[in-house]
Amino acid sequence: MIRTVAETGSTNADLLELARGGAEDGLWLRAIRQTAGRGRLGREWSSPEGNLYASTLVRLRPNDPPAASLALVAAVALQETVSTFLVAGICQGTTDASETLVLKWPNDLLLADAKLSGILLERADNAVIVGYGVNIAHHPDLPDRATTDLAAHGVVVEPAMFLEILADSFARWIGRWRTEGIAPVRERWVDCAHPAGTALTARLPDGSGIDGLFVGLDTDGALILRLASGERRVIHAADVFLL
Questions:
Q1: pLDDT, tens digit (0-9, with 9 covering 90-100), for 162-217
Q2: What is the DSSP code string of 136-176?
Q3: 19: which residues sit within 8 A by CB, 6+ positions away?
Q4: Cα 189 from chain centre
Q5: Contact between residue 171 and residue 137 where contact means Cβ atoms under 8 Å apart
Q6: Are the C-beta atoms of 238 and 224 separated by less than 8 Å?
Q7: Which positions of the chain have pLDDT values less than 70?
Q8: What is the pLDDT of residue 99?
Q9: What is the reported pLDDT for 85?
């Protein structure tokens, strides 16, 4: 079920409260506009009308894979959805299908090497909130990375329509995650990511940085980098940038 509100502070925050009140697995909440949207590590997320701001509730079950791997589920569902619009002709023939659409660990989708969206996961007991911010009609100018939106690539789509497709894709991938485990989700994520050997820099929570080449993901979805020394480093939390 999808609920839509005209304005709220944060769909993630609202859905966390609904989860504490007993809301059921699979509920979606979309806001036409947010006044206190946020990204990872508490960063502000610009939320003008015309983009997608939506969150969904996943109730963890006893035999589910680790909750952190829901980030992979969220990412592959989003990549699949955006691919649909880029290829489907909704873009009225103006989008070059060869433009790259790439997943970047931990939570970004890049279009033509620019940030198109972000994903934020938050947890309260057995409830995980998966929040999406997708630049459909607008994108912010950020000092540390290139950004873009779907309209800039010729895609004209209403956020409500986009969310309907995204919710269907997310439900399919959640089903596979629950019945088949992390492996098929991880495989799809790697297939949609930048190629092995791509140079990355990881900014760790303590402020230090690590440069290395992308190897892939470990079995739990953590990032693996190969350093200049030949050592393989597993990264569980960081901001990652293409070099």
A1: 999 999 999 999 999 999 999 999 999 999 998 899 999 999 988 899 999 999 99
A2: SS-----SSS-B--SGGGT----HHHHHHHHHHHHHHHHHH
A3: 57, 124, 127, 129
A4: 11
A5: no
A6: no
A7: 37-46, 87-99
A8: 61
A9: 87
| Extended beta strands in the chain, E state | 2-8, 28-34, 52-59, 101-104, 108-111, 114-124, 127-134, 199-203, 209-217, 223-226, 232-235, 239-242
Is the distance from CB of 144 to CB of 239 less than 8 angstroms?
Answer: no
Cα separation of 153 and 168, whole Å? 24
Compute CA distances 236 → 24, 33, 144, 241, whole Å. 29, 32, 22, 15
> What pLDDT was estimated at residue 88?
52
Q: For residues 121 and 69, what is the distance between their CA atoms, to the nearest angstrom?
A: 10
Q: Within a 10 A sphere around the Cβ of 115, how many other Cβ atoms?
A: 19
Quote the pLDDT of residue 243. Answer: 78
Residue with the two structure tokens 């934020």: 120
Residue type, 226: R
38: its two tokens? 């946020």
Q: What are phi and psi of 220, to 5 degrees?
A: -100, 0
